[in-house]
Amino acid sequence: MEILNINQFPVIILKKIFSLVTNNELSSNYFQISLVNKLWLKYCSETIYTIEFSETQIPNEPAVNKFLIGFKSTYSLSFKHCTINIQQLSLIVQNLFFLNELNISYCKLFNSNNNNNNNNNNNNIYNSDNLKVIGLPQQSPPQDQKQQILNNILSFNQIDINDLATLADIPNHYKIRLTINLMYSNTISIISFIMKANQSIINSLDLNRCKIGRYINSLGEFSDILKTNFSLKHLDLSSNQINGEAATKLANCLKCNHSIETLNLSFNDMKSVGSVQIANCLKVNQSIASLNFSSNFPDEEGTHAFAEMIRDNHSLTSLNLSSNRISFERVPLIAEALAKNKTLLHLNLQRNLIEGRGSEFIAHGLSKNSSLTDINFSSNKFSNIGATLIAKAIAFNPNTKITNIDLNSNSIESSGAIAFSDIVLYNKSVTNLDLSINWIDSSALMDISQAFLNNSNSSIKSIDLSNNTICERGAGYLGKALLSNCSLKHLNLFCNNLEKQGAIELSKSIEMNSTLTSLELSSNLIGDGGLESLSAALIKNKSIVSISLSQSSITVEGAQYLVPLLEKNNTIEFLDLSYNSIGPIGAQKISEPLKTNKTITSLDLSSNSIGDQGASAISEIFPLNSTLKRLSLYNNKIGSIGAISIVDNLIKNHSLYSINLLANRIDSSILKRILKRLESLLPAPS
């Protein structure tokens, strides 16, 4: 028998083998391979992309530092809950040329000179010495290898003010995403110092919940720095108690700033005065593309200012004005603004007070708008009149580009929903329509379904009618549209009144339909009788890949109808049977066909009271099924006996990497064994 010498393989093959064995992570597998010989050590080190340490102290020792910088291909470095010298960290980072993510959250970062710095006066509080870190070269990397650390997670750290300020000493070629939450009262002063000392370091800044609005003078200094800053692209100042006065200072700098692209000012206290200032500055600013201004309560004056801004701004592509108590009742300018704006793509007005005249003004603007692609008007008061106006405006605007419409929770009845049949018939851009959580009954489905029959090539691919009052009659209307292979790919009828007869009506068309890929029928109480018809239809269906039947009153009797479905259907990948009552016997019945099923990758059996007996039966599919990836057995009265069966069979499986066993009665020691096995099967990061 000829012996195969792995060292004779091409380098690229060797690296591929090492990559598969190590999963590109620094782990015990790495050490087992790298200790074989120096050649394997070199090649294996080049396959490590992720290094993670947790809850340990990183020594500033020559061997440690030399070891860490040896992984030149690393792009993700994590020291969560660790203790490390900040200067040591800085120079380690400098020598990992491909690093683009650094996670040092919950760390204790210290400076060797802290004791000396504590004796300095306040004028020198931000000074820091450049320490030579043992075992690390001091030179900068070659110009063509200088990386950009786009994700630097620095939240909730035990970090000294002086040490945070040493970020100003990091070389200019780094672009750091800095996250600082719930830190010192003078956080904004520290950030100002860093940005003033190093103009190019910070690319993204998250100062959520830092109470910045309380410190007007410090905010003023920060605003002055932003006027000339050229590196900051993403700024999050949400939940910072920013009032009208603070907003004025911020607005003055935004008029001059040309780098910020994403700005989050949500959950502040700007009200009318601050809202007017921010809106006016955005008439001038030409760099901000995305603004989140939710929960600031601009009142009528502020709303009018934002309408003017929408009309005059030429850079904003995404605007979030949700939860602002906006009505537009006395702001007709919004119609002109929406008609004239040529850049805004995404408009979020959810959770406001829009009704009556406000919806009329918006509809008028939408009838002439040619830029918007997504509109979210959910949780308002559009009702039938407003819904009709919106539907007509979009249906008969030949230049509209709207693809997503969200009007859930708007008190829309059937008379308002009928108007959306015009969108089905005449519009050529809308692909997703959400009319969930309204008061729509089956009568509206007659017109909408007829529209799909008259225009089988409608642009609409997905319709959400969940949480309405549609009964078996509506299911019959929809069935006729589905029978004609209309354009629908995703249909959501969650929580309606279909029951057994509704499922039977839909089944008549599902058998022949070849376009629908996703069907949500949960919480419709279709029962075992409805499941029988549905399963028979799904056996012949060749297009549906996802079906949800949660809370459908399915018992052990219904489980027997799933057996031929699981044996013969070869398209369904996602199956949700949660919150039913199949019990241990039902679990045993469906486990048999699952042993040979080759398509289902995700199965949810939560809350079915399958117990130890059912869990053992389900676990028997593990050695034989190599397709299933995710399984939920949440809240199933499973004890240690069933869990041990899961452990024993999971060892023989190499594909299942997620099992939800929460809310059961399993001993923690057994859960740890299951978790350890699942971790070894997790797919490598893409």
From TrEMBL:
Extract the InterPro entries matched here: Leu-rich_rpt (IPR001611), LRR-containing (IPR052394), LRR_dom_sf (IPR032675)
Q: Name one Pfam family in it.
A: LRR_6
Q: This protein is called what? A: F-box domain-containing protein
Q: What is the lineage of its organism?
A: Eukaryota, Amoebozoa, Evosea, Eumycetozoa, Dictyostelia
